[in-house]
# Entry
Amino acid sequence: MSDIIHLLPDAVANQIAAGEVIQRPASVIKELVENAVDAGADDILVIIKDAGKTLIQITDNGKGMSPTDARMSFERHATSKITNAQDLFAIRTKGFRGEALASIAAIAHVELKTRQEDDTVGTLIIIEGSEVKKQEAVACAKGTSFFVKNLFYNVPARRNFLKSDSVETSHIVDEFQRVALTHPEVSFTLINNNNEVFKLEKSGLRQRIVGIFGKSYNEKLVPVEEATDYVKIKGFVSKPEFARKTRGEQYFFINNRFIKNAYLNHALVKAYEQMLPPNTHPSYFIYFDLPPNVIDINIHPTKTEVKFEDEKTIYAILRSTIKRSLGIYNITPTIDFETEATVDIMPLKPGETVKQPTIRLKDGYNPFAGQVANADLRKYNTIDDWQIPDADSFRTSSTEKNIHTSLNQTAFVLPDEPQESMLSNFDDNLGEPLKKTSYQLHKTYILSHIKTGFLIIDQHSAHERILYEKYIRQMAHHQSYSQQLLFPAVLNFSTSEAELLIGILNDLHLLGFEISSMGKNDFGVNGIPPELKENELQQSIEKILEEIKQQGEIRTGKKEFLAKVLAKNMAVKAGEKLGEEEMQHIIDQLFSCELPYHSPSGRPTLITFTLEELAKRFKK
# Structure
């Protein structure tokens, strides 16, 4: 048999590598912007068209490359960052493996212009699918410019799996923000389809955060800083009152590299213990400075995960640092024992004299009149005079007689309300459930009897199914029902959230939202679905956008996806008390649904118990 193992062509190997490194247009932005930072640039321009599918342009004023380096940079594993294995444990730069440019060139049309400061002319290189089409000298500015066109042109399956433009743009904005947050000393500009999204000047860290997320963040932030022999921590956390229902802006950076770490997130949340409202999340921007030899940043292709040598130490330091910062800035309640308790007395005006206060008495006023009638209170001046019935008296055959005897021997002071009315109220409360056909159990389930037994209905799942089918009908027939607001509301979102929201405005209109863009990241709201409370408007839309961020797949079944997300967020929750009419309405509406037995997410809406099943439970 002939040999069957052979080496892959470089173009195929690069496409395989691109599958790990370049997952979407945002991956190209990340790799090229990080390279620009590593090149010493202090001014970076990013231009995208059609969410990066048509064009991605990155221009910087860094140190540039020589003609030889420009050509070598597109080879696999070509890098200037490391020379041997030991260098992997002393990495301070962002890129180091030399796969980014080779991967990008394998799946796009790439044009590179670069010039070093001391050179009179620069270098132009044009590559298509890993094949160099042209290399020549060219006049250009100092620094480097990359033009990435027709991304995934030769991998149509990957291009078809890209999400909508709004979703992809949101991912690009996220990657752009992560790099911009780690380098406030660098000015960044992002232009999307000829519209300026960001224009970030050189600034301090707090100003950079405010520049990205809006002026409202200036009052939300609490500074955090700690320096130990093992780790240095700095950054900002949000005040508890500004916590959001969604995770919002949460950033960890290790040596100026963005990472995700659930363990550190748990430490930070524990620092907020007993300060956050239920089901809310704080925003944070935390920067760790650690010796490179105590972390491993080479465990994930995108380098967003890091392995620590001693996680527990960092956990403890982070938690105590956040807790101390919240206390220093008077976020946590404290008692100041240093302050003397004094009474502030206003000074007298010129010519004013001190007047002695007077007391007015009402003649004949008796505060006890009408509450105690003909009671000889002197008879009960000692505890011994109050008789407590002996427990043995309740064990005799004449129990009722003993109780009445004990009560008659003791004088009780009763209010003016007649005893008959108290008894009648008690009887009414006992009799009220007998008139009901439905009952609420633990403010979560609805119990309703049927001929063969009874039903237990999950109020949230049932209402979710009702709303889902209602929204599907509205969107199918283009009949939206909206409740007009007396005063239009103005909502503000982050840039990535705003990009997502713009992409679904037409679909939200069919669901009852009347929302229009007011420029930048502000939106005006004139109408909302009848089921939505006005004070829950912002957080409801944030939840919708968060679901889109997490799942993202809305290119197919977009209307069903939005109807499912909105129904989930607006259905009555477990723990909400329902009246009899509300419970009966849910029951009636549920059984008029096409699929009443399961929620849109697949959870059962009801469980039935028959009389036979109950009878078996009571048998010996």
User: Anything to note?
Assistant: The first strand starts at residue 43 and ends at 49.
